[in-house]
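Give me the fold.
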Amino acid sequence: MTESSQVELAGILGVTVVPKHDKYLGLPTMAGRSKKELFEGIKDRMWRKLHSWSAKKLSQVARTVLLKAVLQTIPIFAMSCFRLPDTFLNELEGMMAAFFWNGGNVPKIHWRTWSKICKLKKEGGLGFRRLRECNLAMLAK
């Protein structure tokens, strides 16, 4: 469609013309082959939150609450619209696991695997969401 016909149609409908590769509500309007690059904004937002919290001395319980209430909710809207790459979701979960065990910049031992921590509380886990499973559930709605 030519630019002049786009402008004419937008005038008739009373909407604005949006460039092809623009973002809407923080997400790309079109996703090509390399989806990982498109969603780096999510990773950056999570990293900024983690970085601001890592300077504080937080207990394990406080880190658990922050992970569940804040960090795991950041990618929810994107996961309801797109199938995010597994490698990208694994990176996000790795960031969350490092924050959960480390709390700061000092590396510490991960006493349990992330998959065991993500189990339900009645199964011995802490009830964290697995991002891949959450992504598939959001797309199935």
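Residues 50 and 99 are 7 Å apart (CA to CA).
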